[in-house]
Fold this sequence. Notes:
This protein is an alpha/beta fold. It has helices at 84-97, 100-117, 142-154, 186-200, 220-228, 244-254, 258-265, 282-290, 299-304, 312-317, 334-349, 362-376, 409-415, 441-458; strands spanning 8-16, 19-28, 34-38, 47-48, 53-55, 57-62, 119-126, 157-164, 206-208, 211-212, 236-240, 272-276, 294-297, 321-324, 391-394, 422-427, 430-434, 437-438. 36% of the residues lie in helices and 20% in strands. Helix 2 packs across helix 14 and helix 4 packs parallel to helix 5 (220-228).
Amino acid sequence: MSREASRHLFAPLALLPGGWATDVGLDLDGAGNLTGVTAGAASKGRDRLDGPVLPGFPNLHSHAFQRAMAGLAEHRGSDPEDDFWSWRKLMYGLAGALMPEEIQAIAAQLYVEMLEAGYTAVAEFHYLHHQPDGRPYDDLAELSERVIAAAKEAGIGITHLPVMYLTGGLGGKPATEGQRRFLNPPERFLRLVETLRSRHGGDADIAFGIAPHSLRAVPPDALKAIVAAVDAATPIHIHIAEQTGEVDQCLAWSGKRPVEWLVENAPVDRRWCLVHATHMTSDEIRRAATSGAVAGLCPTTEANLGDGFFPAEDWRAAGGTLGLGSDSHISVSVIEELRWLEYGRRLVARRRNRLTGTGGIKDLFLAALDGGARASGRPIGRMAPGRRADMIVLDQDAATLAEIPPDRLLDALVFAGNVNPVKHVMVGGRWHVRDGRHSRRDDILSRYRRALASVRSRL
Ligand SMILES: [Zn+2]
């Protein structure tokens, strides 16, 4: 199998928007788009894919640099109430120290891992903008460019979301020293977005959105200004209601809960991705779900940080859309995100099959593909004409999948086994992972090791 894919492929079994289909012919154009997807096709003249085929999975929430601290915050410190905020202190230490080439090295390593796990696109919530002392680089977009360069090196599709960060807390609390690399007033922030768009607008594997960091970090007038400046197709991502402490602070500030405040004060619609949205009342669930916003769930990070459980059954019952992200990258696994989402609900309810319906996890899987695509603002997430040719071929020899009938294949994939069964991965018509291995795994890993050694020597 060469890196440049054949334009005519044959999948004995493929997951299409309506469910599993057999003998699927896949036609690609030279720009990496699917032009034809036909079930019941003849295999003649087509390159046969050697396992079940899934659409590539969009990862809708990532802070790439945090990959470098995964595993380093799992011991209790002197504070017996060790929680999110002590984790954040450690994270700020790293964020303050990283050099541009280190940020690129870490992001490239992460994106290789994502591709090997079956994530073919990432929405990168990028808030490191400036030099360690807070002064902008000569190129305002220096660090955004490093992350985009890492995505290009690895070959993953990216929705780059520059983050707007202005204040250190609700009510205009000044930002702290640990936050100075993040800060941009609205005018400079919008200039950054425009600069990036003008440089990369023609690349089908890159899109841009905006990310007001949170209600803590973006005052109402600044939120209004940046949201008013973008068009109807631009994704808008925000962290919201992740921690109960944040809910309490928001109530004290405004008399409203975070999601309640947001839906009443911002034009929340299908462009929006509400990242976490963990703590909602039934009224907030109804209002946010019917707005068309995507709930951006990151179950392994939410578990790691002790956030709480997203009310997934109520969200789905209200017609809400959701997608999945790996956020802090404590785990880079589509399988683990799906498994934790379902298991969390089972543990809360003390009952089985909360999000898995009569069709198993397939409906949730398809819904998370669609939600991730919507939050990415790119034509991905489905095997259908007009979408990007982003796909995963599973290892048909994996013991986990042996002798499993097609309608139980995703259940076996998600709930049984801990060996990664992702065999080949294509993004935009190009193979980047073959036989479980990214084509640049070794050189990107050695550069990552050097970058980590260097940054740790300075911490
Ligand atoms: Zn986040």
